[in-house]
């Protein structure tokens, strides 16, 4: 029974670690897209673009922080 629990815990740790990595990559991608648009390197962006990107960035950052906390809690 104990082996099953430790295997499940290892899988949970791996899941939250993967979600943390994906969230960090998504957060960096969204932040860079906003910076590129602000710098004028991309096409002309509308206000709606900035609203969408800001909402996605905040959701991504919140999810990433949550995944990081869960991963650290499961580590030990």
Protein structure class = mainly alpha
Shape: rod-shaped
Report the sheet with the most strands, covering strand number, pairing sense and barrel closure: none
Number of helical runs? Answer: 2
Which runs of at least 5 residues are low in confidence (pLDDT < 50)? Answer: none
Helicity range: over 70%
Number of DSSP strand runs? 0
The termini sit apart by 20 Å
Oligomer classification: single chain
Percent strand equals under 5%
Mean pLDDT: 86
The secondary-structure element order is HH
Q: What gyration radius follows from the Cα positions, in whole Å? A: 17 Å
Kindly summarize this structure in a few lines.
The chain has 2 helices and no strands.
Question: Could you describe the 3D structure shown?
Answer:
- By secondary structure, the protein is an all-alpha fold.
- The protein is 88% helix and 0% strand.
- The radius of gyration is 17 Å and the shape is rod-shaped.
- It starts with a helix and ends with a helix.
- 11% of the residues are buried.
Write the layout of secondary structure elements.
Elements: H1 2-39, H2 47-75
Helix pairs in contact: 1-2
Characteristics:
0% strand, 2 helices, 88% helix, mainly alpha, single chain, 76 residues
